[in-house]
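ok trying this again, last paste got cut off
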Amino acid sequence: QVTLVESGGGSVQPGDSLRVSCEASEPSFSAYAVAWIRQAPGKEPEFVGGISRGGTVKDIADSVKGRFRISRDNAQKTVSLQMNSLKPEDTAVYYCEADVAVTGEVYSTVSRYSYWGPGTQVTVYS
C-alpha cells in the first residue's frame, strides 16, 4: 500500500503561479500511474491531470490545459503539478492519487485510483 502526501498549496492572487507536489512512500512508485484531482466546496471531484508510470504519457484536463503541467521524478518518488496563470475558479483542495498501472496508461477517471493523499488547499483570491 502506498502513502501519498501533498505539499505546496497556499493562497495566491490571480495570475500567480504555484507548484504542488506529491511524495510517495512506496519503493516501487514507478509502477504507479498518478493523477491530480481537485475538489472545490460543494462540487464533485474533478480530474486535473495524470501521468503514466514512466512519465512519458500525460493527460491534462481541458479546463487547465495550457496553464498546468504535470511531471514526475521516480527516483525521488514525487509527482508535481505546476500551475500558472491561476484563476479564482482554480480554488480547491488538490489531491494526489495513484494506482498500479500498465506502462503508458493514464486514467482520467477519478474513481480509478485506489490511493489518495490528504490533500493541499489552493486558494486564488479574486
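PB: full thing came through this time. The chain has no helices and eleven strands.
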